[in-house]
Structures are given as structure tokens and as C-alpha cells.
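Protein: 26S proteasome non-ATPase regulatory subunit 2 homolog
Species: Hevea brasiliensis
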Amino acid sequence: MAPDPNSASGSGTSKEDTSVKSDEDLALKLQLELYVERVQDPDPRLQKVALESMRQEIRTSTSSMTSVPKPLKFLRPHYGILKAYYETMADSDLKKYLADILSVLALTMSAEGERESLKYRLLGLEGDIGSWGHEYVRNLAGECAQEYAKRQSEETSIEDLMELVTQIVAFHMKHNAEPEAVDLLMEVEDLDLLMDHVDKTNFKRTCLYLTSAARYLPGPDDMLVLDIAYMIYLKYEEYSNALQIALFLDNMQYVRQVFTVCDDLLRKKQFCYIVARHGITFELDDEMAADDEDREALQEIINNTKSSEGYLTLARDIEVMEPKSPEDIYKAHLLDGRASAGASVDSARQNLAATFVNAFVNAGFGQDKLMTVPSDSLSGGSSGNWLFKNKEHGKASAAASLGMILLWDVDSGLAQIDKYFHSNDNHVIAGALLGVGIVNCGIKNDCDPVSFRSFYARTTKCVATYCILIAQTTSFLRHWLFSLIIDKEDSSIRIGAIMGLGIAYAGSQNEQIRSKLSPILNDAKAPLDVVAFTAISLGLIYVGSCNEEVAQAIIFALMDRSELELQEPLTRFLPLGLGLLYLGKQESVEATAEVSKTFNEKIRKCCDMTLLSCAYAGTGNVLKVQNLLGHCAQHLEKGETHQGPAVLGIAMVAMAEELGLEMAIRSLEHLLQYGEQNIRRAVPVALGLLCISNPKVNVMDTLSRLSHDADSEVAMVRIAQGLVHLGKGLLTLNPYHSDRFLLSPTALAGLVTMLHACLDMKAIILGKYHYVLYFLVLAMQPRMLLTVDENLKPLSVPVRVGQAVDVVGQAGRPKTITGFQTHSTPVLLAAGDRAELATEKYIPLSPILEGFVILKENPEYREGH
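Structure follows.
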């Protein structure tokens, strides 16, 4: 049995002697034993020589540790003796010398939890801790964290401890151990100290670790960590990275600061592309851009006016401009019995499905084989024929599909939709109104309202005239004109106008639209469907704003509904509209959640689940996922509706990072096996959200099994074919962008709205409200990398595209992609792909190569070098 290293007796056993393998080792062992004896000598001079010699031996052996150094191994039996002698020494420099040595010996000899290494370090000389080696410093850091927690609980002084922490952090930062420095500062709750120790060589690695760690921290620590990363990026003029953190924090003050402190116009243009991709409404002022022309050019980028142009550039480059028909997608010619199936092809349900497939496949291309009229055809040609192959409310979706086909092309889109406003069919007018909203999705095209007032004064009060005006004016005026229509008696026209407003103005927080829509919520005569779509549109317009006035209006609307109305499928849209106001805002929802407990029991639980899932969407909060899973585990009576939103909520909360996402998929598969039918129906929807535009093999396998499920509603797959071919493969629905760092609130809101409708597929999507599928337009974005020159003209350069590699915490300059191929821009980026420039001729102004990236010429580049 080995001796207790803390005992003050003995000088080893025969077992210890067996570790001495050579004459050199034996000589070292005898030498160290002599030093131990001399340290206890009454002569101070001998003590000093012995201590310095012992110190030198230990230092040289611990500078790089791959195993326990021999001096530490041979001194192990003497640790207790030296500790006992230390206690008898009078205060002097020699005692501090010995304390330093004991501190290092405690690295391998101290009992767990004693923190003797730290104890003797604080009693020793204030020298360079790094000279004892990296392992020693790491051990000290761990003990510092434990000691800090103990002293905080006892409320004793931490001054001496913080001095040591400063030394440890300085050492780590100089030796490529930034994660360890950050971890220690988080433990001692003094992350501000980091600002003094970052420099140009390590700030990028430090910030990368900070932003990655933030996902796993509880609030408010996560926000504090990102705040520090923002300040560091700002300090070293990495403004694009600082802007991304500002957007993640949803801190508009920080966004303004980035625009204000940067004086490079070209970089500001890149900032505008990042803001535009995030999908928020942002107005520049004189401080952010002093020159009027510059400000106008920057605002134009933020307003997304060139997105259609960039998208079509990509389409032409990869030669997919040719329109596709639904038959091309169905691969109908490959099916057996094609002739016999022909008789049922013209049924209204088949045509409606084809309308959506056609809209999704040709989205943004401006041409298709069903709706757009060839230039040599007369008005009312092929598009009119297809429109009237749909019945009643099907015509609304058919007319609106033209907006999807002409997506982002405002001028051409409004001109082509114009013809539907002359129709006498209210469903066609409703579809045209929705189409106007879809065309303008994500595009801000504002002008002076003064010119409108005189224009409005001369107009008549004919609905058709209002509609024509809507089609011919810019987006700022549209909400005035829409407002004239949303008061009309016909529900379909009102819903078309309201939904169009919600899509066109998502995230804008437009007060004039609120003042027009809010009264509808509290109108006792308004039909439930009009009220439901009004709640959703207000939720989209004020997404993530926590607006109290809108929240109160929706709460009163919910309280005013009769018990019979609360059982209607569309009622679920009212809690959802309320939830969207708090999307991603975590604790801010608590007051509203308390109010929801007073609602009628028919809607109370559903509202609770919806509010919880929206407020914590994209946060990865494990406790909330557990809460939602708890609700899903209950076996309830028929008629309970809250478990569907709870299942969807699991996906909404867990989608934040890869680890939580994988765990959520496993939990959902368990629910699929053991859950009630209403839970099983929600699982495919939740899986779709977790892996949106990212076909994971295990999830595809599960969904493939479900497509043959005995329950017909679980097996709904037809329109899915259209979504698979979305934009002929050029579009993504993923709300995450910028290397999965940023989550677009409007994109997530559009997805969640459509997915909540899927929870009652039969009554909503397979009923007469199929046009809720168009809420997906809010999440549609080209999955491209388009490089442009300093004049914002497309510039083709070679780029390497490969699978992204996580390089957090790695020293040096590790490869960020693997299995790459070299292409010329523009290129498509699949889920999990990352691109990097394959030439040094240009410098990208964005840290992440996604979407529009401005390249400027590298002044140091020389051809052939």
C-alpha cells in the first residue's frame, strides 16, 4: 500500500523504489532527498540553496508535461514532511519560496477538494506563474473557480483571488488558451476583464468561443457574453461581426452604433445586405449616413429592392429559367395507368393542388405554364382559363399564386395582378389582394404620403377602383388603400386584404396599419375567420415587439368569443397572434401568460402552450423543452387541443443548436410510438420544422414511414412535392442564416403560422383556408452566394464550397470546411455548407459568405505571386 502523501513520516517504500529505472533517475532521487533534508537545515543559506535547486529541477521538468514529471514523482513521499516543516517556519522570503514549491507539488499530491495548490500559491512569492508550466496554471484556474464560489457563499474578500485570476487569464490569452481564460472569467463573474487581455492575434478566436458558448448559458449570462463579444469586435473594427451580434441581441441601438462608427461606405453597403437578409425594418438617419445620395443608396439595399435581380442572375447562371409544370414535378408519365387517371385530372381539388405546386416551383421566376400570360396572347388568355378551373375559394389561391410567381418583382408583379381587380368574383379580388401582399413580401418601396392625400380625395368608393389603385401604387400607399377594403362586408375580400397586409408589412411595426386592424378584433359583428386572420396579421407586423396595445386587443378578442366559437379550428390563430408578439422574448411573456390563465378552459391550455413555445423559440432552453414534453406525456380526453402546439413547441425551442436538435428528434420519435393520435399528427410537422430545408436521413426515413400511415391526415403528401422543388431548388425555408447564427423573426413567424394551421389539416388547409400556405413566403430566401463588385454588379470569382467544420477552441488557423469543391460564383449553398474565397485577388467585406457579398480588390495582390 502506497503511503499517504500528506503524512509527515516515511521516505518511501520499496514500491516507490521500483520506479527508479536508471542511474540517472537514482541520482535525481537521491539529490532531491538531499534537498528535502537541507530545506529543514537551521542554516538559512543552505535552505535557500536547497530551495532554489529544488525549484530549478521542478521548473525544468514541468514546462511541458506529457506525464507526471520525475521530480514530482520522487518528491511525493516527502510532500507531508515539507508541509509540516512549512507550518513551523517563521515568516520570511524562504517560507514563501517553500510555499511556491508546495503549490506545484500539490498539483499531483493534494487530496481532492483541498485546493492546496491555490492555498500555497496565495501564500507564496508573487512571481510568474507561467514558469511552472501550462498544467499548473490550468489546475490553479480550476481551484480559483471553486474558491470563488466558496468565498461568495461566505461573503469573504476575493481581492487576492482576483489578482491571481488576472495573472492566469493573461497567461492563457498569450498561449492560445482563450476558451480556458473565458471559462475562468465566467466562473468568477468578471468577463469585463477580458477586454484588457484580447489583442489582434487572439480576438477572433476569443469572440468565436464567446458566441458559441452563449447558446449553452442561462439568461442573462448569455446576453452578457454576447455583449462582451460585441464590444471586442467594435474595438478591433470588425464591424460586420459586431452587426451580426447586435442583430442576434435584437439591439437596434447597437445596430445604429455600428453604422455610425464605421466611415467606410462600401462596408456600410455590406451591413445593409446583412440587415436586409435578416428581414427587419430599419431606417437610416443623418448620423448613420450624412450624404443624402449615399443614404438613399444604402436604404435601397435594406429595402431589398434588388433581391429579384440577384435571384434571377443566379437562375440564369445555372440555367433553370425554363418554367416547370406540375406534371414535371409529379413525374406523372412514370406512373402506371396514366390514361385511366386522366379523367379525374380536372377535378377542383387536383387543380388546387396543381396551383400551389406551380406557385412554389416557379416562385420568383416571373413565368410559368399556368398563370402568366405570354406576351403575344390576349388579356384573359391562358391564366384566365386556369383561374376558372378552380372553384370558389380555390380562385383566391389561384389569383394569389401569381404574386408568388412574380415574387419580389414589384413593378412587373403589380402590373400583371392588375387584371384580376376588374373581376366581378369576390374570390378573385381577394386572391389579387393577397397576391399584392406576396409580391411585396420583404420589399419596402416607400414614398411621400402627401401626394397620396390629394390623389385619395379624387377617388370614388368603388371596391374595384380601390383595388386598381392598390395595384398601381407603391407600398407606402398600399396600407391606406387596403384600409378602404378591410371594412367591406365580404369576408373573403377582407381576409385577402388583411393577410396581404400581414405578409407585406411583417416586422414593420406600422402604427397606421395597427390603428386600422385593431378595431376589427373587438368588432362583435366581425366573422371569426376575419378576426383570426387579423390577429395573425397583427402578430406578424409586430413580431417580437411585445406591443402591449396589440396584445390587449387580442386578449379582449379571445375573452369576447363565445364557447361555441372557441371550439372552431380557426380560434387557434388568436393565441398564435398573441404568441408572435413575444417571439423569442423569453421572460417578457410572463405577464401575458398570467392573464391567459383567466381565459375560458376551452382555449386556456392551448394559449399557454402557444405563448410558451413562441416566447422561447430558438433559445434551446432545456427546462422549457422538458415542460412541453411533460404536457405531451399526458393521456387526455378527446377534444383537448393543447398537445399539438406543445409538440410543435418542442421543435421551436430546440431548433437553436445541433445538439438540442438531435435530442428533440429522438424525443419526437418516442412520442410517435407512444403518443395519442393528436400528438402523432403533430410530430411530422415538428420534425419538418427541426430539419427545414435540411434533409437528414433518419428524419426522412421516419417521414417516409408516416406517408404510408393508416391515418390519412398523417399521410398528406401532395403539396409536399411542390415544396421539395421550391423555386426549382434555388430557395430555402430555413429561418436561420449567417452560418446558422441568426434567426430571422419574420421567417420563423411565417413558418409557425403555417405549421399551426397544419395541426388541423382537415378544417383549415384541406378546407377553404388553404391560402394559409402562402405564409411560407415569409421564410423563402435564395440559398445562394452572389458576389458583387464595388459598384454592386455581379462578379464571378472562384470559391470553395464544402461541409462546415466547427473550429471553436482550436488554436492557429484550422480549416473551416472539408470535402470542398471549387466553383465560380454565383453558387448554391446546401444545408451545412460553408463557402470561402479561393482567390487572394479580392477581400470579402462579410465574414460569412452567404447571400450578397461585396468584394473589394486586395491592394497587396500581385498576379503570379
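Remarks: Residues 655 and 690 are 6 Å apart (CA to CA).
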